[in-house]
């Protein structure tokens, strides 16, 4: 049997062309593996058949929607993960799952090489290859788009010359990656930072003014950091994301226009749509404000940022990210309760919080009758809290005085 290449197959131009190109250039058979991450669009049976029509010896479709939601989106929610405080890791959290299934299929189908369609400018080449090197270092990696300098024009020409059955023209303006967690759009006229996104950029969200007179108020219930109900109706993590994608999307929530620092050292403009992701992260973060002790919450805000950076940088399988996962899980023990929020005109406004694990004590917080806070203890606290600064300032004033005397 000929050697086999296990290709991460999206069904688009580059990976469809790659099936034929790899076969011709290397003499190896190609097994195409497509992962259903809730991206919508084409029927996955159509995608499977296209891979076979393009020359794959086998075509596999993996329904990983629940796995993606439970094992990748949920940790992202619990880590309140936003790279540069903005990007909800739409593509970054999907890559390690794709890597996992490619490695599984390499072992199941006798593959010795894994292949992806990433360019040399992006982050995904790192996410894929670091993942492969971690989970299956014995596999070789092939990256034809990067290593052989494919351009979109070359890929289209190759498809036309070799009668590859894919309907793509040179008029397609954007590069798009999407899954149930969100949608990432780049290239085309968006590469000019002064150009505003036009309505054809968006798909998951409506114009924020479209339902201006009909705001949507809802309640999200969490149990130990996990969304378990919306408006009292039980939901799985996947169902929570899907429902909020629809409801928040109708309100124009989750549109992000970002210039981000790529891992490879360049800045890139990306337009994201992540309605469900942004609502869930916002609600979860608010519940943590209610249920996490002050120092734990303060420290976790730092680790949340580090978790996001590790994932963005392709280090999902790293020791540090694994240790952070353990820490995050420990912090979620008391993150249970309900958050009420309003989705309106592109905004998320929290207007209610309720938790049996709350650290908010009304009798301590109130300024009205029933106040149980002993204000007489505050004077000593203030004096001690600022004592070290007071001593340092006294020293510095003395140094200034001494300096002034020496100048006379």
From TrEMBL:
Residue sites binding ATP per the record: 8-16, 117
Keywords noted in UniProt: Amino-acid biosynthesis, Arginine biosynthesis, ATP-binding, Cytoplasm, Ligase, Nucleotide-binding
The organism of origin for this protein: Rhodococcoides kroppenstedtii
Chief localization: cytoplasm
NCBIfam families: argG, PRK00509.1
Catalytic EC class: ligase
Annotated Gene Ontology cellular component terms: cytoplasm
Molecular function as annotated in GO: argininosuccinate synthase activity; ATP binding
Protein name from the UniProt record: Argininosuccinate synthase
Self-association and partners: Homotetramer.
Location in or out of the cell: Cytoplasm
Catalytic activity: L-citrulline + L-aspartate + ATP = 2-(N(omega)-L-arginino)succinate + AMP + diphosphate + H(+)
Lineage of the organism: Bacteria, Bacillati, Actinomycetota, Actinomycetes, Mycobacteriales
Start and end residues of each Arginosuccinate synthase C-terminal domain: 174-391
Residues annotated as binding L-citrulline: 87, 123, 127, 175, 260, 272
One GO BP: argininosuccinate metabolic process
Family membership: Belongs to the argininosuccinate synthase family. Type 1 subfamily.
């Amino acid at each position: 049997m000929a050697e086999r290449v296990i290709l991460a197959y999206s069904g688009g131009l580059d990976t469809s062309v790659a099936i034929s190109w790899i076969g011709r250039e290397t003499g190896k058979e190609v097994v195409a593996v497509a992962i259903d991450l809730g991206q919508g669009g084409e029927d996955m049976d159509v995608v499977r058949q296209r891979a076979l029509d393009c020359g794959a010896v086998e075509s596999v479709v993996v329904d990983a929607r629940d796995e993606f939601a439970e094992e990748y989106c949920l940790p992202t929610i619990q880590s309140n993960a936003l790279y540069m405080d903005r990007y909800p890791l739409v593509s970054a959290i999907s890559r390690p799952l794709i890597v996992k299934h490619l490695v599984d299929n390499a072992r199941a189908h006798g593959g010795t090489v894994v292949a992806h369609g990433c360019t040399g400018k992006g982050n995904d080449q790192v996410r894929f290859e670091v993942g492969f090197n971690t989970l299956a270092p014995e596999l070789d990696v092939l990256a034809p788009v990067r290593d052989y300098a494919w351009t979109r024009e070359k890929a289209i020409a190759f498809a036309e010359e070799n009668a590859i059955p894919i309907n793509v023209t040179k008029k397609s303006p954007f590069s798009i990656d999407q899954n149930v967690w969100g949608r990432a759009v780049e290239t085309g006229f968006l590469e000019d930072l002064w150009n505003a996104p036009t309505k054809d950029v968006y798909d998951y969200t409506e114009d924020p003014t479209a339902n201006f007179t009909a705001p949507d108020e809802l309640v999200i219930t969490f149990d130990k950091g996990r969304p378990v109900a919306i408006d009292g109706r039980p939901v799985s993590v996947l169902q929570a994301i899907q429902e909020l994608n629809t409801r928040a999307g109708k309100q124009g929530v989750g549109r992000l226009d970002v210039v981000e620092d790529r891992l490879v050292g360049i800045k890139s403009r990306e337009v994201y749509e992540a309605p469900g992701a942004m609502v869930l992260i916002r609600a979860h973060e608010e519940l943590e404000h209610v249920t996490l002790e002050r120092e734990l919450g303060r420290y976790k805000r730092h680790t949340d940022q580090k978790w996001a950076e590790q994932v963005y940088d392709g280090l999902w399988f790293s020791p540090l990210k694994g240790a952070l996962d353990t820490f995050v899980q420990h912090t979620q023990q008391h993150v249970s309760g309900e958050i009420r929020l309003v989705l309106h005109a592109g905004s998320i406004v929290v207007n209610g919080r309720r938790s049996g694990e709350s650290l908010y004590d009304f009798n301590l917080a109130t300024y009205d009758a029933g106040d149980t806070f002993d204000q007489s203890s505050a004077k000593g606290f203030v004096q001690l809290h600022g004592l070290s600064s007071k001593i340092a300032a006294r020293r510095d004033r003395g140094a200034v005085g001494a300096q002034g005397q020496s100048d006379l």
